[in-house]
Write a structure and sequence with these properties.
The chain is of the alpha+beta class. 27% of the residues lie in helices and 27% in strands. It has helices at 7-28, 37-50, 117-134, 143-156, and strands at residues 54-55, 67-71, 74-76, 90-99, 102-111, 160-161, 167-169, 176-180, 197-200, 203-205, 211-213, 220-222, 228-230, 233-238, 241-244. A hairpin with a 6-residue loop joins strand 7 (167-169) and strand 8 (176-180). Bound molecules: magnesium ion.
């Protein structure tokens, strides 16, 4: 069931979303060769705790950390541990924060040191596909309009769209209806209405679209070993279009 938020609830979501993106960049600020992923995660958790929030992902379905950190060919749900970053890595950080009864959810892929031109292009196209997707949003538009726009941008650049994981409604629960795929057909799918809050999150692979999961039950990697990037914001649907809630 899709839950619409009233203005009071939207105000609370703005707070949780602001904290979410602040926590992400607090963690990202230490990205450098030689840093362990767990150090980034700890920084994110401490930032949330200091501001009275709870990490949405910690213990969610048994997930053991406060953020997902996915390096290079890891698409999503990487568990931040002892892995050390090296020059040229691309680092996808996905963060959720729960504050005053509402979740925020956002992700960015950030370079570690000097990255390849191809990696830079992948990150930029993934970001652009998000903005092309949300440019379609208005009260009465459809989820498929977002999906088709994201897919078009990604594939026009020669990249591919992950099918197994999708965006979602977000609010009192981390994952609410509707699902928001990053591929699909304009004019199809559930309608969007003012008061909906959704996480739009393209996951784009430099190579083929196929992915597999490690036997840790979480980490998702590209089948062909190619790089993958992630860009996510929680947005509110308004009469005038999408408003990004997880923006600094
Ligand atoms: Mg999400």
């Amino acid at each position: 069931m899709i839950k619409l938020k009233n203005s009071n609830q939207l105000a609370k979501m703005k707070d949780s979303c602001k904290l979410t993106v602040e926590a992400l960049y607090e963690g990202a600020s230490i990205i450098a060769p030689g840093i362990a992923l767990v150090e980034i995660d700890t920084r994110i958790r401490r930032y949330m705790e200091k501001h009275g929030a709870t990490p949405s992902f910690l213990n969610y379905g048994g997930f053991p950390k406060s953020s997902c950190i996915s390096v290079n060919d890891t698409v999503i749900h990487g568990i931040p541990g002892k892995q050390i970053l090296k020059d040229g890595d691309i680092v996808s950080i996905d963060v959720g924060a729960y504050l005053n009864g509402f979740h925020g959810d956002c992700a960015r892929t950030i370079p570690c040191g000097k990255i390849s031109a191809e990696a830079e292009r992948l990150i930029e196209v993934t970001r652009q596909s998000f903005f092309d997707g949300i440019a379609t949003v208005r009260s009465g538009s459809r989820v498929g309009d977002i999906s088709a726009a994201v897919q078009k941008t990604a594939e026009a650049a020669g990249f591919s769209v992950v099918r197994e994981f999708v965006g979602h409604g977000v609010g009192e629960a981390l994952h609410e209806d509707p699902s928001v795929p990053n591929y699909g057909t304009a004019g199809k799918g559930p309608r969007l209405y003012s008061g909906m809050t959704i996480a739009v999150e393209p996951m784009i692979n430099a190579g083929r679209k196929e992915v597999y999961q490690l036997d840790d039950g979480w980490t998702v990697k590209t089948m062909d070993g190619s790089l993958s990037a992630h860009y996510e914001n929680t947005i509110a649907v308004t009469e005038d279009g999408a408003v990004i809630l997880t923006e600094l």
